[in-house]
Amino acid sequence: MKFRKMLLISFISIFIFGNLGLHSVIVHAADSLEFREHDDLINILKDGDGENRVFGFTTKNKLTASNTTLRLYVNAIEVDSKDYVVDYANYSITFNKAPDRGAEIHIKYGIIPGFEWEEGANMGFALPEGDGSTRNFPVSLNYTLNSTKQISLSIDLTKVATSRFTFNATTNTVTLSEKQQVPHSGVKVYFYIPKASISSKPSPSEEVIESPSPSPSPTPNKPSEPLVQIPTGERYPGSITIRSGNTITIKLSESASVSGYTSYLMVKNASGQVVRQIKIEPGKTFSFSLRKMGLPTGGYYFYLKSANQSGELSASIPQFVIINHEPTNIQVFIEGEKQVYKQPPTNFKGSVLVPLRGIFESLGADVKWNSSTQTVTAIREGRTIVLTIGSKIAYINGVAVTLSAKPQIINGVTMVPLRFVSEAFGGEVEWHGEAGSVTIFLNKPSIPTSAESEEPASGATKTTESGSSSTSPILNNISKGINTPSDIIFVIDVTASMGEVIDYIKETVKSFVDSVPAGSNFAVITYRDVNIYRNGDYNLKFFDFTQDKDKLKGDLNTLVASGGGDIRESGLEAINLATNKLSEFSSDNAKRIIFITDAPVHESLPLSSFSIKEIADKLKADEIVFDAIAPSDGDAYRQIIQLVKSTPDGVLYDIKDASVLSLNK
Q: Global pTM?
């Protein structure tokens, strides 16, 4: 009965810790016991007696071959589907061979999109999984409701505040507000309705309520979940100003100082990739030279944001900023992209001239040159422009206009006035004197500020206060102790609060692997939130071993820190997986784990299947060196230092030293 006891203990733990978002439901019957475990429902059947091949099970949920996936286990080992038959109509299972006497038997069926089930006083509905962009989720609801009070929503087993979603009972649609982060691809979304609110199945003549009733006010003894308190968009309480001498001034109001939120200056390149992330303290004003950011000449999008661990964020509207280290050399940016011309742009009596063919092609126009008349004709989206070398008269769809400067030939290249050409095709042109640059936008871009959009650019660097790019002090210190080829796994917490450290790892991994002896192999394991056994696998992601440095860097560049919330996090599951992968990997190399987190690891069910001592003993037995980049004090330190000390060479480094540049020093 060992497995039966384990399941019951697990069930009791889940029931006790139900406030963590892990729901359970019990169905008592003569032949079975059923309860919820994360994204599955588990039904325990009678034990085998050595003779019986047919086992019935009882459930209040309607199961079919199409609305769920049913799996059978004997003594905790999954049975091959060829060795049994499921009768969904009669809720029974027939074995090809009778299970042994005392064999513990249970079935597990997944809660997949479209599935409906009873859970205590509620009916649960599995909505379509997240895809990283959808905010509207249809509910397959076949009931008439008499009220929408006490409805609830969970995303990845975390309850969503009622202020962050609405339910339209006319269209049976759940809509997430802008305050709620969009569920990532594959994330489970569950909707709950109290059974007391269900009156009957609808008929064509019945009316369905059109709007939800307001949620009840919280009682004094049960405070409501905090709401996002920082306005976003134009109302965001901060500003960015570029002044003479290419000095940037950042003002962030004290109103952005909300518990649990951290504020940053974000910088993206023209491709929308993050190249700088600088921590900002609310209530202060900061001014510094753009040159100190260590960015090459180019166009960038700057914005301020405040984010919490749940992935909720508020942000200012991104603004386009030009950095030109040689302002005497005129730069041209079209749709944010720097243009490179055979003949450099020229300032001719206050008018910027650019190569004719280069500018027209950059604007997407078709160009025709008539050498006999020295006339150029450009056509774009139904608009025709005609210019003649040496003449200030040009034509737009046959209408004559006077130019500020004549088109002319310089060094054998035909040059035309930039402003006229761009504005003639509907572009917005702006001259930036301090940067010696011109920007042209035919269509103002929409620059996303979500966490998903903030993938760092390849080769992005961290900026020091002196303006030089930093190296990787922590990883370099670790690599100094690696004198022989090693198999190394980075185990990385990718919860939203780890955004700074994820970028740090991405930017420094190349220098780290370059300093490690040849023949070393590298792998990555990421985890987010509580990673207990789900759907037959741990909720972890493993990037396989490689000696290819570019592949490793590419794997790390895909990581985005997001999600999480106030659920406890456990890295023990991830560390255990790393030890298993190192043991399975056929190599005579030394073995090492580099663990990166900003939170305690927690231990024991329902948060983890392991204790710290068990993992420490495993590291010691397998002779795996364990380094950590983690908090240097508090509960996290007291837990993780035990793992570090499991082998003689392990070291714990303060995660504060791995954060992005702070302007608050």
A: 0.46
